[in-house]
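Interim report to the steering committee. The following record documents the input for WYL domain-containing protein (351 residues).
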Amino acid sequence: MAVSKVERLMNLVICLLSTRQFLTAERIRASVAGYEESVSDEAFGRMFERDKNELRDLGVPLETGQLSRFSTTEGYRINRDRYELPDIDLAQDEAAAVAVAVQLWESPELTSAAQSAMLKLRAAGVQVDTEHSPAAVTAIPARSRGSEPALGKLLAAIDAGKSVRFPHRASPTAEAVTRTVEPWAVVTQSGRWYLVGHDVDRRDVRTFRLSRIGDDVVAFGRAGSVRKPDDVDPAALVARLRGTGGVAGTARVWVADGRAEEVRRLGSVTETRTVAGRAGEVVDLSVRSWEWVARVIAGHGADAIVLEPEELRDQVVRILTGVADRDGIGEVADRDGIGEVADRDGAAVSP
């Protein structure tokens, strides 16, 4: 069975993270599942070169260096210090929430695949760093795995230099609209995946969040007809077009005493205030993404209430109403107050 490009890239990352030594292209070819399908050295060289560029576009810190002081042979590895997240200090309730999430996201299939890859690396003679072994990279969140079919098809189209056509939703509740795009790259930004390319219908450069792209991705056109311009930086494009590079505005949010710590960390407390008989504080925060901060606030229900701006308050109400309608918990939402918002004077009103 042929190995997909997504699986091959995952195998390559596991291989390069499993050791601190530089690995030659020949060793990588023999160790990473997917490269054995290369019919010649030239075919492998082209495939490996594309994969290296793909990893760098995704933000993976791939390094090149000599195997030793006495060798001129070039090798490759991933800079683990730049790849791994820094230590995160979590409160007790936050750590408990993460533990629950990990249990929910565990994937036996990926665990088996990672362990199989590690065994093959050891069998090939690669010195695996067991202390930081990515065999512990056992799972990808279920929601991320949900976009894998689209991700694989988009990467394949980019690799082949073909245009794509797919259904896309401008927002989670919007109707899907067919988009025709010349794809250039798939990049990550602020924990989300984006397709970057030229929108043929709109005749402009656009970005598309992968979670809103349907699985019905169709590649078409002559192979090699689509090529990313040399002067285009996909990651910088996403940061600029998605507004992740600067502050989009400010908001004031009331949070209940001892609750909504995530909202508190985003800003600073400016005053104390009682809302609907509950004591709390008003937090002023800078907003880079209105959509993201609306989801964060909505996730805390009645413990976080938007005071201003009105547009953000309405967006939070829409999120809560949509969840209540979808899960049939409208009465519970009203009873527990998770559908409440506040006007500019802090008085609780019903949406």
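Residues 103-110, 132-147, 330-351 have pLDDT under 50 and may be disordered. The committee is asked to note this result when reviewing the revised timeline.
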